User: What shape does this take?
Amino acid sequence: PCRLKCIFAGCFSSTSVGPTQGLRKLTLVAMSTHISSRPDGVGVLVLDNAPVNSLATNLVTSLRDNFIKLQKDPKVKAIVITGSGAFFCGGAEISEFNTIISQGPEALAETSSPVQFLCSVMDVIDGSDKTVVAAINGPALGGGLELGLACHYRVASPSATVGFPEVQLGLLPGGEGTQRILRVAHLEVALPMLLTGLPSRVDKALRGGILDAVAKGDLIDEAASLALMRPPAPISQRPVLKSNRFKALGGALDLALAQAMNRARGMVAPESIIT
Assistant: This one.
């Protein structure tokens, strides 16, 4: 993952690897996505991995394959991504990281990074020439929020939450979230989420720029309507917000890091995220 100070230096990294590189030795179980096409020409892709729609390798592979199907379908004008059940997406499948770690340092050296494939799929979504909207029907946490940020726009249900809780486990956001969020969100909203792991409610996320709208009626209908009205707008191609650049020059990153370290002494993730 790219550190925040690297972003303000103008860096945006991208990775592209094969469909199972990095996690090829893991035991795979049935987890998938489902697609359908609405009468208005919007394709809907649903994440389906109960209970939290975690980004297991099989699900990410299915996400890539089904997204490409919608992308190539000439009848599909735009794409909406949402989750099944009460969650949009709870983030990475932690058991897969545990499996890699249990294989020892040799396995880690061989795989390079367990999130490379996920990042490559995020880049496919980000680079779509059809407008992509995340319909955030419930919590979007860690990699789930990063998936939402890979979409061009985000519409959430009033009960949804967004956040990066992995910092509380000593992990950095690995799905390019550190690189995308400061291109849409104000620093004072993004930094507490990144450095403390505390989630944000939709009203704050909307004011802070993470969300484009909060649904007043049917979430999928409103996300589909937005997708048909707006052009594709990859976040990776947007500049970091000017206000964020000024605040960073004024020492906001160092101040936020100092505050985070005072609250959680001994945690290594906040410093790694900043520097």
